[in-house]
Amino acid sequence: MRIVIKDTKKETGIWTADYIWKKIEAFGPTADKPFVMGLPTGSSPMPVYEEWIRRYKAGEISFKNVVTFNMDEYVNIPEDHPESYYSFMYDNLFNHIDIPKENINILDGNAPDLEKVCRDYETKIKAYGGIELFLGGIGPDGHIAFNEPGSSLVSRTRVKTLSYDTILANSRFFDGDMSKVPTQALTVGVGTVMDAKEVVIIITGFNKARAVREVIEGGVSHMWTISMLQLHEHAVISLDEPATMELQVESVKYFKDIEEIAGDKIPNHNE
Ligand code: GLP
User: Would you say the CB of residue 138 lies under 6 angstroms from ligand 1?
Assistant: First the structure.
């Protein structure tokens, strides 16, 4: 696992945006062979999306041959609700870049048959030949997408009930009112994320520091579903300083030393 630590959230975002863009460039996507990417919502990826938008507007990058699969979506809130993940993605990324609408995939939390939506999502990902790179964030309890503590570590896309902690954390987007937060969501599984050829997780802020400790220094546990990343061949965790606060000083130094020695000079040195 490669751990990259930058001073601020913004620097972490810029590094991550640049790292992923270089992967896309190296892949050389075409209309017939697009780059397939998994994407998250939340405040963590915002600096990444801002940087991609800035670079798109500067004419440096194009998303024409990129296909996206979003990680998750609430059940039972209208697509055009300001807090749906659909709205989030269009407002914060898709409306500002040149990705074709038909390349965008978001789980439909309002469909009559949610199980079918989940099955079809997995089938569609496979039809594309799998996800090349999954970008993700985590919740303070270490969940990836909506794979709450106790989720199966080989889970696939499915309906999940949200934990108290997640409803509380996400109530900041619903006027601080927990009763307005949906209690269920559709989410890719831990197994779905693990199947991606590469996984990049961006984690910023002190409120994620405990989860970072569990993921990096703890063992693999279904109580911290992101810890499954330890078993991925190509995993990168991109952190800001506040997110490292619960790590041992020697762990931080160890990973910073490795970056200093290898940095971007060695391709795939996250192996
Ligand atoms: C939600 C999403 C996750 C996201 C998490 C953290 O629970 N389902 O995919 O990683 O929020 O969000 P934030 O980055 O805003 O802390």
Answer: yes
Contact call for residues 134 and 236 (beta carbons, < 8 A): no
Please work out whether the CB of residue 13 comes within 6 Å of at least one atom of ligand 1: no
Helices (H), 128-217: 164-170, 190-194, 209-217
**Residue 60: partners with Cβ closer than 8 Å, 6 or more residues away:** none
Q: Which of 9, 12, 39, 44 to mutate to test the pocket of ligand 1 (most atoms within 8 A of CB)?
A: 44
Reported as a single tens digit per residue, the pLDDT across 13-36 is: 999 999 999 999 999 999 999 999
Q: Exposed (0-12), middle (13-18) or buried (19+): which is 202, by Cβ within 10 Å?
A: buried
> Residues 117-138: pLDDT tens digits?
999 999 999 999 999 999 999 9
Closest CA to 40 of 213, 217, 238, 222: 238
Q: Is the pTM of this model over 0.70?
A: yes
